Amino acid sequence: MKAGSSRDKRVYLLAAAGLAVILVLVVLVAGPPGRAVDWAIRAAALLGYLAALAASLSSAFMRQMLHLFGMPFLKVHHYMSIAALVLLTVHPLLVMLDMGSPAVLIPVLSSVSGFLQMGGRPAWYLLVVAALAALLRGRLGRGWRALHWLTYVALLLGAAHAMLIGSSFRAVPARVLLVLVASLALFVFARKRLDARRRRSRAAH
Ligand code: HEM
Ligand code: HEM
How many whole angstroms from 184 Cα to the centroid of ligand 1? Predict the structure, then answer.
């Protein structure tokens, strides 16, 4: 009985993941036309963002991950974060090859609007620092978690960058969808803090 309900939940979750990928493809195809390289740059960005968000969401449902997939949270989290890091590295590398200059990898610090428009640049470095902090957590002690929180900043910067220069986000429905999706990162942050507070107060009683 229990296994059946767990299987049902797994089916719902996989259906939701499939729906998310279909939504990404719809947003992509509904955007303006482009060359093959433009499609590749956009697809890598959108799917990479989705994978990073899924990695974050998995952290808010750690117990459920074990229950649903029969594997520990960290394994699920690893698959998603590796997919995110690979796609979000391919995305700027393609931009760099297309532009023919490594200058596209340097964050813009001359103005707030420039910083946000090119917010993907600092976001990429933040994701790498956060992932390295997780890999080296044995050596870093408790401080690694604060460094790992940089993933939230990266997701928000990535959303601002997509909103300001992403071709797929010129139409209002796609912009609304982006705001909703980016808000999920804030939801994860709030849920993790509430869970921690609940655990502390249970331990105190
Ligand atoms: C794209 C890359 C990644 C993203 C977006 C991401 C995102 C997150 C988020 C949002 C949390 C919850 C943090 C909190 O609010 O306390 C988390 C937790 C965690 N992440 Fe990642 N992560 C990434 C990569 C990695 C990697 C590469 C590792 C391991 C080598 C890792 C290991 C962990 C662990 C162990 C936790 C659990 C923290 C706890 O005990 O609550 N993450 N991750
Ligand atoms: C050095 C790093 C980066 C560079 C040079 C870069 C560059 C670009 C460029 C030129 C575009 C416009 C593409 C187009 O609309 O045709 C774009 C869009 C986008 N970028 Fe980045 N980016 C970087 C990192 C990131 C990161 C780390 C993220 C996610 C956290 C991200 C997420 C996005 C998203 C979601 C779009 C919108 C794609 C679309 O409109 O379909 N970018 N980026």
Answer: 15
Q: Is the CB of 124 under 6 A from ligand 1?
A: no
Task: Using the Cα atoms of residue 136, residue 137, residue 141 and residue 143 in order, give the sign of their dihedral.
Answer: positive
17: which 2 tokens? Answer: 């993941």
pLDDT of residue 205: 74
Confidence of residue 3 (pLDDT cuts 50, 70, 90): very low
- Looking at ligand 2, which atom is closest to the CA of residue 105? 1
- Per-residue pLDDT tens over the stretch 140-168: 998 999 999 999 999 999 999 999 999 99
From residue 199, how far is each of 114, 115, 185, 193, 202 by CA, in Å?
Answer: 42, 38, 21, 10, 5
Question: How far apart, in whole angstroms, are the C-alpha atoms of residue 131 and residue 148?
Answer: 7
Does the beta carbon of 74 sit less than 6 angstroms from any atom of ligand 1? yes
Which ligand is in closest contact with the Cα of 104?
2
Q: Alpha carbon of 184 to those of 34, 135, 166: distances in Å?
A: 29, 24, 19
For the chain, list the domains and their CATH numbers. 2-204 (1.20.120)
The verdict on pTM exceeding 0.90 is yes
Pocket perturbation via mutation, ligand 1, pick of 58, 59, 91, 135 by most ligand atoms within 8 A of CB? 59
